[in-house]
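Case 247 in the screening queue. Each case pairs one protein sequence with one candidate compound; here the compound is fe (ii) ion. For every case the pipeline is the same: read the inputs, emit a complex structure as tokens, and attach any notable structural observations.

Predict complex for case 247.
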Amino acid sequence: MFDRLKQLEVLRKSVETQGWALAHQMFPAEVAAAMLFQFQRGLGNTPETYTGIWGKGPFTKEFCFESYAYHYPFHAGLLWSLTPYMQALTGKELLPTTSYFRVYRKGDHCALHVDRPAAEYAISLTLGYSDDIPWPLWVSQEAVKPNASAAAKGGILPDGTQMSMLRIPMQPGDAVIYDGVNRLHGRHDPNPNEWSAHLFYDFVDRNGPYADHAFDRRNEFVQPSDFHFPPDGAPAAKAKTQKKVRK
Ligand SMILES: [Fe+2]
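Case 247 output:
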């Protein structure tokens, strides 16, 4: 039987000793598929209907579907609820920063890059492939030298920078945990699928140098809540009935 606690121990060791780890079935494939369908149903699946971003990011050659955690409450909930898992994996007191959802098209790539400080602890999760062909994530074996990192423009390292790269094949539900700030990463092979859907989650150490990036510095999300009840003796207001769930 698959033992999640044992997996966590192995992954934690990998993160500590080599700076990255591959979590097979971080989500069961069915859950990854359900998450992907929720994005498609909630945000749309054509350039005309998509309510996130239909555009070309700094790392892609082609237009792709993209959205950020704070565009879509479901997405923010996924990010926030992964906090304890990432804390267990890293042994750090983490806080979430942001998350990206992206659907790449055939032939596109994700240029090798390093992330901004908000991705001190990053997860790349594969949600689904149209043609079931694994599309590997590339992660550098070593951390990027501070001088090369400082010379990076928009996360892209200067031409001629040589680094030894790992190519990590991933199935839907698999995730790679890595240091997004110091490890060069991307998908340098052309996408062999008609489309390929991924989620990227970022966290920072609340006691570390990037702690101020928590919640992507969006203070509107960390506010006190309040609830109001009618005074004693007031007639009971008619309860709103929940909308029927579509079957
Ligand atoms: Fe990245």
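Case 247 observations:
- The mean pLDDT is 93.
- The pocket of fe (ii) ion is lined by residues 113, 115, 180, 185 (CB under 6 Å).
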